[in-house]
Amino acid sequence: MVEGKGLREVKFVSSTFKRAAETAELARGVLVEELGGEEGLPKEGLPVVVGGVKKCTEFRERYFGRLDGLPLPTYAYVWPVDKMTTSNKGFDVESVEEVWSRSSSRLRELDEEMGGEDVCLVVAGHADTLQIMQAGRAGVEYLGDFSSYRFKNGECRVMDGNLPPKEDMSAPERWKKGNGIVE
């Protein structure tokens, strides 16, 4: 993902939540090994990994209000409404607009503080937050469509103007009413 891009440095940031921070540390370690070392010891033509993992609360998972801690299928009450309004706060969830505001402003700050044309900033975070950030950075027509650009677990993407094809976001059969999960 970093070869042939003309990069000088790779830096890592993550959510403060444990699994994201551990993922960032693991990815950083693998990349250090692949690139041949840290801080000024790169293989010819490859960037160096600089610094440790910077943890940022702004990249934490979206707060799902009264649904927090409940089984994943209950989140299906939120995402369809997000597609209608990015200010959805039903069940006391954090709205798409709020997630975009906190994450994008922090990413802009980090770009200025740590970035540059020849620096790759790797962000380890959580599904909704990363999808909202990527959709916003890509300039999607309507930010409420963020959930149509799902990340797979452990997937890496470049956050530029390109997005993967939209996915059908209808609920899986096992989540539908009558299957014992969503009543």
TrEMBL record:
SUPFAM superfamilies, per the entry: Phosphoglycerate mutase-like
Region (Disordered): 162-183
One Pfam family per UniProt: His_Phos_1
Source organism superkingdom: Eukaryota
Compositionally skewed regions (Basic and acidic residues) per UniProt: 165-176
Protein name: Phosphoglycerate mutase
Species in which this protein is naturally found: Triparma retinervis
